[in-house]
Amino acid sequence: MCKHTFLFLVVFQFSLFVQAQQPKSEFSIVENNKSTCILTDEKDFKVVQIAAGIFAHDVFQISGRKVVTAAVKNQKSDITIIAGTIGKNSTIDAMIANKKLDVSEFKGQWERFSIQVVQNPMKGLKKALVVVGSDRRGTAYGILELSRMMGISPWEWWADVSPEKKSEIVISVENKVSKSPSVKYRGVFLNDEDWGLQRWAALNFEPETGDIGPKTYAKVFELLLRLRANTIWPAMHSSTKPFYSYPQNKVVADDYAIVIGTSHAEPMLSNINTEWNHKTMGEYRYDTNSTVIKNLFSKRVKETAKFENIYTTGMRGEHDSPMIVGEDDTDQQVKLLENIITDQRAILKKEIKKEPNTIPQAFVPYKEVLDYYQKGLQLPEDITLVWTDDNYGYMRQLSNPKEQTRSGGAGVYYHTSYWGRPHDYLWLNSTNPVLMWEEMSKAYEFQSRDLWILNCGDIKPHEYNIELFLDMAWNMDAFEKSTSVKNHMNAWAAREFGNENATAVTDILFENNRLAFIRRPEFMAWSQVEPVTKSGVTELNQFHYGDEVSTRINDYQAIENTVEKLYADIPAFRKDAFYQLVYYPVIAASKINQKWLYSFKNDFDAKQNKRSANDDGEQAIKAYERIVKETQHYNETVSKGKWNHIMTMEPRFLPAFSKPSFVVVHPKEKASLGLALEGYEMEVNHEIVNCFADVLPVFNRYTDNHYFIDVYLKGEESISWKAVPKADWIRISEAQGTLSASSGNQKKRLWVSIDWEKVPQGENKKEAPLGHDFQLIPPSYKVNNAIDFVTKDGTITIGVSVYNPKFEALENYSGFIEDKGFVSINAENFTRNQSGKEAKWETFEGLGYSGKVIAALPRSAGPETDLKTIQQNSPVVEYDFYSFNFGEADVRIQAVPTHADYNGRGVRCAIAIDNAEPVIVNFQTFGRSDQWMQNVLKNASVQSAKQIINKAGKHTLKIWMVDSGVMLDQILIDLGGWKNSYAFPRETFKK
């Protein structure tokens, strides 16, 4: 037997197949310069021929060998694949009749397939690889599964994931039958296409149409087949002509076996945005103009009747707005909507000549339509209820137990791209994939399994989240745990960029997603839309807690450095793919953050008259220019200009994307040294006696703090400085330097820390003194010293105070500890986790400000509001902490801002310190309130409850589940010392 060269095989199997019936066997696709022949039947569905052609293309891309695609009666080969649909392929039907194939397990079922090696399948052929589909899409998925097994990425064309060249192709085959898809209809909504997809199609890919037409849709449909999707909501903005205005579009969709549906604003496959003509059709109001509207519906149903469709029922207004009615009365609106649906079903029956309950229909309770539904709208139970998120990734409602029994079932419409208030995110993919997993897992658990649609905007740069979404829809069983997402991404990265790069790529993207969860790149201007506002004032604190602005700059710079280094090592044939899938998204996110973050620093430093403010402004401009450069490279250079016009760095030309302006500082005085300390908004003024801004915050032995001192140039020319600690236990990151206007080195951040082994220790006490103010520590517990900053002009002394007592209670203590009047906790770092009668708290990885949250599971567990029962039966997490103060504390809990699943289930937990009676905390928001807007901009819902700490010393915070599904992120116990910050300070933990 010849020696085979095996392809790199990382494929997303994830238990896609039922138990193998026979051992695995090798099958050569290309061997010894022999090409494959894939045999189909000319009577089979068009999509089977299309899939065979795609497979042949894939083999050629790998090996350079052409694959013969032929009808079964015309050709055979030593290497033969037979592919077809049960009842549509004569050879396969003969094998079934001769008992060479057993299809009893999946015959007549939805989108299933079998792949197996069959001996003597037909006269004159010793062996063949046989792909059998239960229906037309099942066969197509089976054929394209072979491409996956060869290592071909679904993004082979859409992200230029060129396969590695091989002279021989061998796959490992087990006789297997695919499982039924987890979700019946699975697909995407092409939306907000104005700035990318439509321009690219019109100006680059399909200029003969000048639009997104059949040529473009054929490529989209190929991608959907490769991703095992079956449904699309076509692009519908006014920049694009309606899908059905190009007659060939629906034919191409049917050729590719793609089901056409439409969005919540497009009833009965009608694109109101561009098909409604006020001059000829009048006002788009059903209460006054129903005849004309019904005529439009009837026309569309008639021309689509012979194709696979999902008809959206109900009605909204034009341009994604509420429906217009004569009276602003909810009861009248509900009644009118019910009448509309009744009329629509009558049209379906008349034009398709089938009973409405046999025709796929969807009702999307989006925005105000959900309110109508909640107010009692009666919906025929065979219509699929398509629940929506709140446009920012949080499902607004899901099926209650009664709704879960509806014959029409339920589905989900989910966003990873959005145009609207409080702010768009149309540029980058900034939806956390673990959040998407969590919300879709919840929807699936509550029986939303009939239709999943992802609003993915322009497709690019949403590639990974599209694949994750559709892989979950195909086989949700493979995604039981939050860690499944990281495993999936690692496999995805290995397939695209090799095993050697998979971990690094995954780590980069997970950190990029964590930072975007804290605040999406498009939200960094602190502006809003509808109406559009100018850039605002950042909530990030620049002088407390290590400087949140600088910390975020550094975090982005770290992954930027890593991705730059990794890019250099990616093989040449995958560089274009890496650029599209990893490099551009990460660099662009980093630079729009740095643009705004340096702008905030410029404004802050300019107010202190620092020359370094000019450097900050220049850094902001450089970040903006890098975005321009990379976007131009994406459009004009990547894949030799294939994607020209696909990427726009400023969709809707919002303030968030604008070129930054900055303040220029022109000091006139001679050069001198300026100092600014962590904890103070103003600079040190050494000319003022007893300036209170000349002492660093107290260093606490138990939390091992470090604080910054900024040394900066004031005035012209240059100045040299030395930092001289006046005690050997004071450590400083740099001891001397020179600041110079000409060199651009005008500011330096120094970090001060303590060598605790050298600090004199306070008295040995059992407990801390009761209720002291942490900044006014009794002398026996506080050690004072200083750092002298020396220049030719004199000396500036900065006070250093350390808290270094010796408490017996803390000698072997491991837990959270008060620092400067607060205790900060990451929710996943509990001291104890006690399961309840029916539920428990579990950790989700990859979500939240720290990268982990805890969730109350299972979601099926019912709510509990009786306080005694909560304490007895509900799961509880406990956090041991030590306080130096006592009195009233404000316990602030930060949760992921999910919504109530359905009536009766909320977003609540209960808290108590020590043995106090629990207090219920509620994170629910309603409608599109101001609080909801702030929550989705921050991906955080913060609620608080007052608690009494009766003495200094050891305590325990307890958090019980009230409603399952609640996800907790961070906790802050504020005893009066916390200063406002965007995120809670880093954990105050003593190991």
UniProtKB/TrEMBL annotation:
It comes from the Bacteria. GO terms for molecular function: hydrolase activity. Residues 815-987 form the Gylcosyl hydrolase 115 C-terminal domain. Keywords: Hydrolase, Signal. The keyword Heme does not apply. Pfam families: GH115_C (PF17829), Glyco_hydro_115 (PF15979). This is Gylcosyl hydrolase 115 C-terminal domain-containing protein. Residues 1-20 form the signal peptide. InterPro entries: GH115, GH115_C, GH115_sf, Hex-like_dom2. GO terms for biological process: carbohydrate metabolic process.
